[in-house]
Design brief:
The protein is mainly α and about 100 residues long. The chain has a single domain, classed as Orthogonal Bundle (Rna Polymerase Sigma Factor, Chain: A), CATH 1.10.1740. Helix content is about 65%, strand content about 0%. It contains 4 helices and no strands. It is elongated.
Length: about 100
């Protein structure tokens, strides 16, 4: 993609990409990273888009996929809930009432 093609598209859709990424990740830093990643993919693509709607759909789909990838990243996981709970006692407590 040439600079003349990329610049207007980037300016037009940067806010939309960021908002969608922020909605998924709830993190401004991650949304910034995803926005940069998606715009870089747009710049590097050699795909010929048929219409403005096709460009928008492609960008939104790439953004959603980048968000899902970021959410599944092991760097994002801080721990599982079952690992923070104490392990069960080795033997169950029996009732002594007869």
């Amino acid at each position: 993609m040439t600079d003349q093609q990329f610049t207007p598209l980037a300016q037009r859709y940067m806010d939309t990409i960021f908002r969608l990424a922020f909605h998924y990740t709830k993190s401004q830093a991650e949304a910034d990273d995803i926005t940069q990643e998606v715009l870089l993919k747009l710049y590097r693509t050699d795909k010929q888009f048929e219409s403005e709607a096709h460009v928008k759909h492609w960008l939104l789909r790439v953004t959603i996929n980048a968000c899902k990838k970021a959410l599944l990243s092991p760097w994002r996981r801080t721990g599982s809930p079952w690992r923070t709970t104490p392990p069960p006692s080795p033997s169950p407590v029996r009732s002594t009432a007869r």
